[in-house]
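Sorry to interrupt, but I need a hand with the structure work. Please put the record directly below this note.
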Amino acid sequence: MRIVCIGGGPAGLYLGLLMKRRHPEHIITVVERNKPYDTFGWGVVFSDAMMQAMRIADPESATEIEDAFNHWDDIELVFKGTRQRTSGHGFIGIGRKHLLNILQRRCEALGVELVFERDVESDLEFPDADLIVACDGVNSRIRARYAEEFQPDMVIRPNRYIWLGTKKPFDAFTFDFQKTEHGWFQAHIYKFDAETSTFIVETTEDAYNAHGLGDLDQQGSIEFCEKIFAETLDGAELLTNARHLRGSAWLNFSRLICGKWSVFNGRSHVVLMGDAAHTAHFAIGSGTKLALDDAIELANQFDRHGHGRDGIGAVLEAYEEVRRVDVARIQNAARNAMEWFEVVGHRYADTLEPPQFFYSMLTRSQRISHENLRLRDRTWLEGFERWFAARAGIAVKDGERVPPPMLTPHRVRGLSLANRIMVSPMAMYSAQDGLINDFHIAHLGARAMGGAGLIFAEMTCVSPDARITPGCLGLWNDAQAAQWRRLVDLIHSLGHAKVGIQLGHAGRKGSTKLAWEGIDQPLETGNWPLISASALAYLPHGQLPRAMDSKDMDRVRDDFIAATHRAATAGVEWLELHCAHGYLLSSFLSPLTNRRTDEYGGSHENRARFPLEVFRAMRAVWPSDRPMSVRLSCHDWTEGGNTPADAAIFAAMFKEAGADVIDCSSGQVWKEERPIYGRLFQTPFADLIRNEVGIETIAVGAISEADHANSILAAGRADLCAIARPHLADPAWTLHEAARIGITAVSWPKQYLAAKGQYETNLARAAAAASAQ
């Protein structure tokens, strides 16, 4: 085949040498606009896994690259007058110029033609090529030419950064955070040869503008950064080798995703690689890794399908299918890390203490978890756990195992929880006339013995017409209150768990079948009238609610007040108001479901008016020493609906009204929603509200392991974790997860103590067997 790689970066050079090495008959040309053995940039970072892949792909270049690497294990944080360090992270760095020079020499040795100082405008300049590889960077001209086919999605991110270097060598990957009168600046620093380090400075657009950095030339920007980071530089100068950039050299990162990676131009196949196809933020240092992995996979697919012209189309399809998955995974982690740095100043640096800030930074991509940190640096993590436990009032003696964050106590108002795990409200649809029955006693009693600190029953309705289904719990009469007292007494008799109740009104989502008979489907008989913020049915064929008038609002408010009285009398210790998931109060908050033109519609203040009236009325009669939380849908996942920014506005309003905690869920407001699921996918909402609004939060959604909960709590992303489906599968989830991570100093019900030792022993044996394999 005749192959032309447009762009002489890592992707083009590595593909050229791999293809020539595996099939010397190929005629391969790499075209580069720069001069021979000349490039811009400082150091790049690799992982040990990347090097292993390169050893397999081309041992010769891998050996030379490894010989040039600088390896370090430590990460150091400079923050608020402190220096903190942790080890075991395994980074390797090399100068970008050195890396490219090694690959260039390897290409020449194998017979790949290198053409320098040629600026390619179009793929049509190579009409005899069978395959044209467009690896010409994020501003690819080839991709732009076929934009309709490639479907590029380019987002310019808000932060500014400048890529510099220094002759001062650093022995750790160093992060330095410095606050100015206009905001925070952070430096990402790592050594890549014996005497030189990369020094990337990043800040927000607001700080950039406030300091007038756009008016400076490159030297002015360098001098500005030298002043801010003078202590860390310790007299060393900052340098640039990017004089080709105009102005101050401050850039915005461009996040790129393409809908398709290859086209046929009528004569040649054209495929994207590296930054021309996708970008990953430097916060996790994966841009070069992605480019090299692209080259390895494309060469591997030619090996599988054959190195002939006729199979190019199949090769490119397979290449894209495989790489798209890994690229999405890396981009997701890079997005998490990037977004952390974009909001780090006001969300974390201003609010978190240095130890927790360091933990948050280390886990910013969500690829590194609590137990992963233990594997990397047990001493550091146990010191952090000791610090976290001390803040929760636990004094741990020397030599004792420190409890992980999820097993530390937590106090809200006058209520003390034994730990930070709660059984989330989950609809069981098993009541008759709203009454707790033997099923609920058995169901919630079992979970009360399972170790969680707080037990919630399902959403409990404040009137018969507030129910979702005929099987929902209620608290609109004294008989129901008596059964709640029975449940509270039972839970208190079984151990340390406290009892919470979530009061709600189904609104437009009411009068439906039991979930297993057709979730959200309207009842065929026995319907009751529905009310909502506006006359909008939840389903096209669903029952149409009536838009509430002032009498309806007065009646519903009074129903919530009466239920609150009954809950307090029954001994319930935590009260939550349900303002999420499209139910009645949620329907006022969302612009999708609130189309009112009176004082209860329109602005955030108007849409929140009725939910706040209800909340304040409840707070007024709820005992002052008992906490109240509000469950919010923090994202409607639908265009035109509420976003996390809107949720933060509402959270601030409820905080001002006396809420202690925001329970951060999302969705179920609009049937055509398009949520983006994933591990801990709703935790960012709790993080934003906790650290920007300044109110405690509960994280919910796809939290299924102790490792998840500990990571969330340790990083300060939430104060409690609500576990739903895992508690359905395992009533003793908290006890079992504690045992799984080696925590034995946890009380089990005395009736079950005979099983505790055996359970822990079996886990230890299974772990030992797995490690021996």
Notes: The domain at 417-765 is CATH 3.20.20.70 (TIM Barrel). The CA atoms of residues 259 and 648 lie 32 Å apart.
